[in-house]
Design brief:
Elements lengths: L4 E8 L2 E10 L4 E9 L8 E7 L6 H7 L3 H7 L2 E5 L39 H16 L2 E11 L1 H12 L6 E5 L9 H11 L3 H5 L3 H5 L8 E6 L5 H5 L1 H11 L3 E6 L6 H19 L1
Length: about 280
């Protein structure tokens, strides 16, 4: 495979759970991603759903904890889980080593501020570079794509999905950061990557983007009501208000007793995969 080095492989539910590393032109460093190919991929191209993970995660959190492979195999859907930031020698981190900025916290934007602009080009990596590579190297039907994610990755899924209506047939999220303009995580990350211009931030805020979208793809969002970050960082009511104002169909499910962990995501992963598979028919 061109530019791909396989680093892990397992048979799983009759399909293959694979991991690869490649040199990224966008991020100017080696990047890792995982892909689950369902058994149907042995016979022809299959649709693909992109999973974007949250703060502190790599591609492996989803692969080992979400429990997605069984349903993905049943539905005949591939799932790709990229890493959450550039990494390696010369890639800058948060000056204080905090978990919510820098390594494992790329926020799926293209940084414009030094020293992050050289490597932190996660939007281009997710939207352009990795799909072009995956569509060439794997049996994927790139006319049938969906995108979903968790927390920071939920923010990425919502914003990338909304900004690219012709690319993704379906969008969903678990406990997403719905409005970086209105939470501490967003202020730190977007301020650090994009500078002080709030107009630049708004281009990566799902609630702000909602006012400028007219497409009719329904959104599915699950949120645990025992999530420690619910009130200060996530604020799903802002997304509900933005969808109501724009006439966008949103299914927002507040799940009693669930927290921010992968136990929560694993509990409702089947619903999300079926949400995407429905859009592929």
């Amino acid at each position: 495979m061109a530019d791909l080095a396989q680093t892990d492989a397992h048979i799983c539910f009759g399909g293959e759970q694979l991991q690869f590393i490649h040199q990224s032109a966008a991020c100017k460093c080696p990047m890792t991603f995982s892909i689950f190919l369902p058994p149907q991929a042995k016979a022809g191209k299959v649709p693909v759903v992109w999973w974007l993970s949250g703060l502190t995660c790599t591609d492996q959190n989803f692969v080992t904890k979400a429990g997605a492979q069984g349903t993905a195999a049943e539905l005949g859907v591939a799932v790709i889980a990229p890493d959450t930031s550039p990494r390696g020698e010369g890639v800058p981190d948060d000056p204080e080593g905090a978990y919510d900025f820098g390594l494992a916290a790329g926020f799926y934007v293209n940084a414009t501020q030094d020293p992050f602009a050289e490597h932190y080009q996660m939007y281009s990596y997710i939207v352009d570079e990795l799909p072009a590579l995956a569509g060439t190297e794997f049996p994927l039907d790139m006319d049938r794509q969906g995108i979903f994610g968790h927390s920071m990755g939920g923010h990425g899924a919502l914003t990338i999905g909304l900004k690219n209506p012709d690319r993704y047939r379906s969008i969903s999220a678990f406990a997403p950061i719905v409005s970086p303009l209105n939470c501490p995580w967003g202020h730190k990350a977007l301020g650090g990557y994009l500078g002080d211009d709030k107009a630049a931030w708004a281009a990566h805020d799902a609630c702000a983007l909602m006012a400028d979208t007219s497409d009719s793809r329904p959104l599915l969002v699950d949120q645990g009501d025992a999530d420690n970050f619910l009130e200060e960082q996530l604020k799903p009511h802002l997304l509900q208000e933005a969808c109501e104002a724009s006439g966008r169909e949103l299914t927002l499910r507040l799940q009693p007793g669930y927290d921010h962990s992968y136990y929560f995501m694993a509990s409702f992963m089947d619903d999300h995969l079926r949400h995407h598979a429905k859009a592929f028919k």
